[in-house]
């Protein structure tokens, strides 16, 4: 739960002289589902890595009054910044409840699962309800569907009371129904938190984004509503390789690594 905004200003990341992120600025507010999109290698994940302290960066990334850059990873987590990775990082051999217990900093022996419901924290109850996993309490995470695993990761962030959820390709590999359920979940979560989604799935972006920032070669190419960025000739050029030939359906095509390269079809 937060009233504060995430404000990223002039973010800069270099790897041995290679500028992966070269002066990126954007903001994200509670109440919106914010998207960061762009071709492969555009710098999206690096931005999230910088905000979460995994990669050194210059510039500024503030949550409200608090500067995040320069802090250690665990201190950034403690300020309420949570993230997911492209591959779900849940404990497959543990149940949904045990995974959530770990997120909440508790240890529950498997024998106590019989009285699991009685011993469940209010925060875990809420996260289970919110993510639709309430019926899967005793299910080993390893046999959840791909979508359910992603929802479990999101539930773990909710249990930790994350104020900011940075989600790296949350719907990759999901069925259409799971994508829709995930989009609706993100809209619910975003009512009181900051949700920033890195995505390649343009259909998903179009359906659920409130505002979008398009990155290209480490810089902001365009920002605005879905309609605004889709109408931007620069975005069309990057996504199709030919400015002017694009239609508003241009972004149904997953971008290639650079303008001029053949577009890659959506998975
Ligand atoms: N640790 C690293 N060392 C060197 N170069 C890196 C490192 N991490 C990322 N890069 C480079 O920085 C650029 C941006 O990478 P990044 O992963 O942020 O892009 P992305 O937009 O998330 O791409 P994708 O959609 O393919 O995940 C790429 O050229 C990548 O090769």
UniProtKB/TrEMBL annotation:
GO CC entries: plasma membrane
Domain ABC transporter positions: 6-242
Gene3D superfamilies in the record: P-loop containing nucleotide triphosphate hydrolases
Alphabetical keyword list: ATP-binding, Nucleotide-binding, Transport
Pfam families in the cross-refs: ABC_tran (PF00005), BCA_ABC_TP_C (PF12399)
Keyword Transport assigned: yes
Taxonomic superkingdom: Bacteria
CDD domains referenced in this protein's UniProt entry, alphabetically: ABC_Mj1267_LivG_branched
Gene Ontology molecular-function annotations: ATP binding; ATP hydrolysis activity
NCBIfam families, sorted: urea_trans_UrtD
Protein known as: Urea transport system ATP-binding protein
């Amino acid at each position: 739960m937060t009233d504060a905004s995430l404000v990223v200003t002039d973010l800069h990341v270099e790897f041995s002289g290679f500028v992966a992120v070269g002066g990126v600025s954007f903001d994200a507010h509670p109440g919106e589902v914010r998207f960061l999109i762009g071709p492969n290698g555009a710098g999206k994940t690096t931005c999230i890595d910088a905000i979460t302290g995994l990669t050194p960066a210059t510039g500024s990334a503030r949550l409200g009054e608090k500067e995040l850059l320069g802090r250690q990873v665990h201190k950034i987590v403690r300020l309420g910044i949570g993230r997911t990775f492209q591959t779900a990082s849940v404990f497959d051999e543990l149940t949904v409840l045990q995974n959530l217990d770990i997120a909440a900093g508790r240890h529950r022996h498997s024998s106590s699962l019989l009285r699991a419901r009685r011993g469940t924290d209010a925060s875990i109850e809420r996260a289970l309800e919110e993510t639709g996993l309430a019926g899967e309490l005793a299910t080993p995470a390893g046999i959840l569907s791909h979508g359910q695993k992603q929802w479990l990761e999101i539930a773990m962030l909710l249990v930790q009371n994350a104020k900011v959820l940075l989600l790296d390709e949350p719907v990759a590999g999901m069925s259409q129904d799971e994508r829709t359920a995930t989009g609706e979940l993100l809209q619910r979560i975003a009512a009181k938190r900051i949700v920033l989604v890195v995505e390649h799935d343009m259909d998903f972006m179009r359906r659920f984004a409130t505002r979008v920032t398009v990155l290209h070669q480490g810089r902001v190419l365009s920002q605005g509503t879905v309609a605004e960025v889709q109408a931007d000739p620069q975005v069309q050029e990057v996504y199709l390789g030919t400015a002017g030939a694009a239609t508003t359906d241009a972004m149904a095509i997953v971008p290639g690594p650079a303008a001029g390269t053949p577009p890659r079809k959506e998975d």
